[in-house]
User: Fold these one by one.
Assistant:
Number 1:
Amino acid sequence: MLVDGLFGGTITASKLLKHGDFGIGTAEGLNGELIILDGVAYQALADGTVKVLKGDEMLPFANVNVSNFEGRVVLPGLKMDDVDATLAKELSYQNTFVAIKISGTFKAVQTRVVKEQQRPYPTLSETASKQQVFDAKNIKGTVVGYYTPALFQGAGVGGMHLHFIDAQHQFGGHLLDFESDKVKLSWQLLDGLDLNLPIQDSEFIKHKPSDMGIIRQSISESE
Amino acid sequence: MLVDGLFGGTITASKLLKHGDFGIGTAEGLNGELIILDGVAYQALADGTVKVLKGDEMLPFANVNVSNFEGRVVLPGLKMDDVDATLAKELSYQNTFVAIKISGTFKAVQTRVVKEQQRPYPTLSETASKQQVFDAKNIKGTVVGYYTPALFQGAGVGGMHLHFIDAQHQFGGHLLDFESDKVKLSWQLLDGLDLNLPIQDSEFIKHKPSDMGIIRQSISESE
């Protein structure tokens, strides 16, 4: 429902972290990009700073899992567009969810960070002009994200959905592009999805969704 | 993946029943329509008979929940096409999953039952000509099924997906149409979906899905 502008938070960060120590998301009002790594939730903000969430912040959307990476490969260089094909050499995964972690040194990283919106909220695509884009070069850090099968787009973002946080926890966001130096690509095949919907939230449960075709198209375009 | 013809079973009936006492599904090879009611799994077969599953049967797809119906309304008459609108008078539900039970006497019920397929399996739409259609009049029984938001079509069948079993457990199937006498409509709003994918099954994990647009269209047509 983020696509339709339902940016109100429906779960606290501390409650979310009970379900996993690794993940991605956003905060109330579409306030930045979340990166959850080693049990800490970092919030990359549109002003270029990164905060650690205290726990009482409300979140409208997030994906988390309990990390238990089962496979890894060290690569001399990796481009964002090649993550799919690189992973496919290692395992069959396209019909399920996969947690993906890439850590090491990056030659170039480009992120975008969504900007906090005020009520009445616009739609997700209307916020695109407010997004900030950031570039970094020769930076150590970690890519945190998920692969979601196209069939389950809507429950998550179909395909690869990757965020980034640097080793100093001072630079991060939703990944638009990267090119790495030597990195370690780790993966964890997940056997499903435990989808939790905020049915007690009247805005959520009473919302009349926009046409699904439009929603799916908007999600693809925003990627 | 049923749409693409992956009819091989991936979970036993007894294991499925640990996750719920109410639900619907099908069996290995697309062998009939399952109705799970009061913890018993009934299998309506294409020859018009109904069996009780023993527990060791393998199932390729099912939806179950632990029943705890929170609301009910007694109606003098209900048509299948009116279930959506009738429920909407009672609660807001369109953005989440709902378990639906309708019990009482039915003036007319029309079901279809899919027929067991042999390997190599055809696609779901290719099996349509093999389906059997059954009609019953003035029959006591129960409608068992779910509402799935269109956004989650793929994880389940979008919209209403209803099966039927008569009170004698001798007539059942996937509902094509019904018109009731006096019935009780019960509902249970579910706060999400615990999706379990058979990632250990090599047929599942290695399958290259057909185009999503085609899949979604096929599902809609088969309804």
Number 2:
Amino acid sequence: MIENKNQSRTSLEQLGEFGLIDHLTANFPTQQESTIKAIGDDAAVLSFDKDEKTVISTDLLVEGVHFDLAYSPLKHLGYKAVVVNLSDICAMNATPTQITVSIAVSNRFTLEALEELYEGIKLACNYYKVDLIGGDTTSSQTGLIISVTAVGKAKKEDLVYRNGAKDNNLLVVSGDIGGAYMGLQVLEREKQVFLVNPNNQPDLDTYDYIIERQLKPEARTDIKQLLKDLDIKPTAMIDISDGLSSEIMHLCTQSEVGCNLYEDKLPLDPQFISTCEEFNIDSTTMAINGGEDYELLFTISMEDFEKVKANPNLSIIGHTTPKDEGIHLITRANTKIPLKARGWNHLSNESGEN
Amino acid sequence: MIENKNQSRTSLEQLGEFGLIDHLTANFPTQQESTIKAIGDDAAVLSFDKDEKTVISTDLLVEGVHFDLAYSPLKHLGYKAVVVNLSDICAMNATPTQITVSIAVSNRFTLEALEELYEGIKLACNYYKVDLIGGDTTSSQTGLIISVTAVGKAKKEDLVYRNGAKDNNLLVVSGDIGGAYMGLQVLEREKQVFLVNPNNQPDLDTYDYIIERQLKPEARTDIKQLLKDLDIKPTAMIDISDGLSSEIMHLCTQSEVGCNLYEDKLPLDPQFISTCEEFNIDSTTMAINGGEDYELLFTISMEDFEKVKANPNLSIIGHTTPKDEGIHLITRANTKIPLKARGWNHLSNESGEN
């Protein structure tokens, strides 16, 4: 939206086959001790300490499905593509260390556009101290596809899976939720306004927080250390990128427990609430079904209540129950309704990951 | 070409968001001891022995760029998508152990079509004893995109990089070359015939070997053991998926050596030669510039000549020289011409990987 329109345009054909990936990845120095060989050979070589396990996750981002270049600046997109994957590593209570990035691009993209994308990837690599160790560039017939694989490390005793929640655990979420989805609604609305009147300059200051949640989210790499400092080991953990509701159901199903989620405990940002009011939509529905909040959901023992209750980064939003009690939302009016995982259906052209 | 047209057709929408990936990956038991957690959490968890390094490579295959479903059966395609990545692990003299597979599909694909694809992936996993440990399914606006990341292991002392070749090393290639590219030419020709006359039944028996080289290649996972048995450690190694010529140039450039490649030493299959004659094209040009032969190119010390010379799996095709002598092809007529890396230019809509 606020890109420089006078940029130079170099077509990708001008660079030739191997020139492109070499050019794009030229300024990615490695920072992790575990990176023995990064880009430049048939494969990367990593070396972890003997007490460290290797953690791997992968995601595919497709233009027109996961992002819209009408309002996603390429630099932000590059940054977000990395963050999305690091979040999965964090959800294992592991530390991200390396990524590979492959892209397929149609020839409507210029070299300068891809440089923007890689600028964002580089920013994320620097911020999170992860090394770019490999990748592939190829052509696509339409649009841009980004495939990222993230690698991380964790000691065996630190790893947290989805299936470890016990009955009567506390359900905790980091940060606040729903913002990314409402940020997307604002951006979609502005896009429609722009299509009608291209001279309209949108004033998005009122929505800065939720737009940033959508366009430049962060991965909660800090939570592992925070939990360690609090002397807490979660019993189960998952990231909530597909929406709180569906991720609660995954965690409970895999752990074979039920759960009560309390509407009045959901951590909502004031800007998210006011935007829901402006759009005249129910904030709870958006908060539990919107996706792309790269926050972590986890369960902890009831004994850890005191350690967590006053922490500004963490909110206790419910508790687990025996499996046969089911999975419910307890509303502000104290009615109990079954939670439904609406998530985002990626097969009906919305976003979603596994 | 010989697919059953009476298959049932289940649309992807019928399965819902999480049903699809669960369904497709339901029958992938793990076989590797190093796989601690495969599919089913935010990330996979691997555990390698303390003296083993982790090796990682990734590739993106795009419909219309890397494959044409008019003549690539989906089962073969799934198999090949795995093989392509395992080959990169082999090129480090490492042993492949795990893969992740992500796909983006448009809704013209049915569930049954994706089951075929995963059947091929499973065949490859079983044959090469690698575990499917993760992935992602999403929608695409056009066509099929497959992203595979392969993980492998190797002891530090076994790893071979591209940059270790010394002056006066022997240049060795496994198997034979050019077949995959000529197989593709035959398939392209038959596709054109089919478009003109859909009732024409092609007789492809004469081309069985080169078509198999194209549609169902194998990764040379056997070479690591073969070299160990021969008591040889290569000084440098690379896979020749982008064409012998360009890979020789990569190896020589990174190793800072020159090279003489001998035309009369190129290992060519009789079927490849006869097909080149039929198409009236020069077999040497095809052999050194055609791609997708998932063979390994490596350099060894001159002292290892006796160990290699009679091995039916290996061909000595030249030797390295000081860097300033350049990279040349010595023709049958004993003329010396500079080697050019034509490779496959993926930005002009042909295949290529890095």
